[in-house]
């Protein structure tokens, strides 16, 4: 049980590095990554969205200590990520395939994060059975 909990913590820590790193990069450098010239308003929006991405990654990291007790927070963060992924999926259907990296983001948003949420719930339920406490 403790081994699986530790593995979940390590997995979340590694995967949350993606939104933390890309969010921080976007906040600091804007759309320099794409090389596209955009308006100041579009640049501002991009940095804002990057800040949200950074915050979501940091919040996932905040679940690591006592991850078995952070079910509500984990589910809420997962909901935010899935909603963002659905927005990206709609964009894909309306405008076509984005870059390889954006497709990777879509996989993280609509597949990996929900699977991690299910895994976290499983760990939380097992801890609740074993120790009699859990957050819903």
Concise summary:
This protein has about 140 residues and is mostly helical. About 80% of the residues lie in helices and about 0% in strands.
Task: Characterise this structure.
There is one protein chain. The mean pLDDT is 93. It is built from five helices and no strands. By secondary structure, the chain is mainly α. Helix 1 packs antiparallel against helix 5, helix 2 runs antiparallel to helix 3 and helix 4 packs antiparallel against helix 5. The longest helix has 32 residues. The chain has one domain. The two termini are 19 Å apart.
How many strand segments? 0
Percent in helix: over 70%
Largest pleated sheet: none
Assembly state? single chain
- Overall tally of domains: 1
Order of helices and strands: HHHHH
Strand percentage, roughly? under 5%
Radius of gyration: 17 Å
Q: Calculate the terminal CA-CA distance, rounded to whole Å.
A: 19 Å
The general outline is: elongated
Q: How large is the count of helical segments?
A: 5
Average pLDDT over all residues? 93
Which spans of ≥5 residues are poorly predicted at pLDDT below 50?
none
Classify the secondary structure makeup into a structural class.
mainly alpha
């Amino acid at each position: 049980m403790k081994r699986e909990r530790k593995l979940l913590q390590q997995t979340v820590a590694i995967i949350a590095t993606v939104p933390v790193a890309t969010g921080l990069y976007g906040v600091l450098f804007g759309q320099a990554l794409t090389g596209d010239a955009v308006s100041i308003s579009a640049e501002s929006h991009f940095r804002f969205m990057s800040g949200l991405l950074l915050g979501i990654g940091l919040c996932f990291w905040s679940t690591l200590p006592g991850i078995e007790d952070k079910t509500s927070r984990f589910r809420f963060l997962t909901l935010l990520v899935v909603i963002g992924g659905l927005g990206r999926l709609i964009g894909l259907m309306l405008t076509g395939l984005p870059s390889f990296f954006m497709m990777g983001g879509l996989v993280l948003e609509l597949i990996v994060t929900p699977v991690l949420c299910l895994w976290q719930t499983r760990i939380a339920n097992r801890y609740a059975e074993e120790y009699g406490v859990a957050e819903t």
